[in-house]
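Pipeline run #58 for the internal structure catalog. This entry was flagged by the ingest filter as a single-chain record with no existing model, so it goes straight to prediction. Upstream metadata was stripped on purpose; only the residue string is passed forward. Reviewer on rotation: M.T. Logging verbosity set to normal.
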Amino acid sequence: MFGSEEKIPSSRLADRLKKLEKMDAITKENHPTNKKVFIYKLTQKGKDLAPAIVDLITWGNKYLNEHISEESKAFAKNLEENREGVLDKLQNT
């Protein structure tokens, strides 16, 4: 049922990706050598969400800290130390 590291059912992931694509937050392209694989990329609209997502992560780390993984805590700490650098990387990739 869960074929990914994120432990999300493929049907749920596919549904979420379709919704993001319909909202023009991502684009979907065929992989150049494997037609069964797709490449998803953020659009400018999707990249513009980065500051809001970063703020939600920071809020969650502050108020829901006991409910998030150590990896998430480490990412949130990185945001606190280098918010602009992380945003720049997210928005310019």
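catalog note: The CA atoms of residues 2 and 9 lie 5 Å apart.
catalog note: The chain has two domains: 10-42, 49-91.
status: ready for reviewer M.T.
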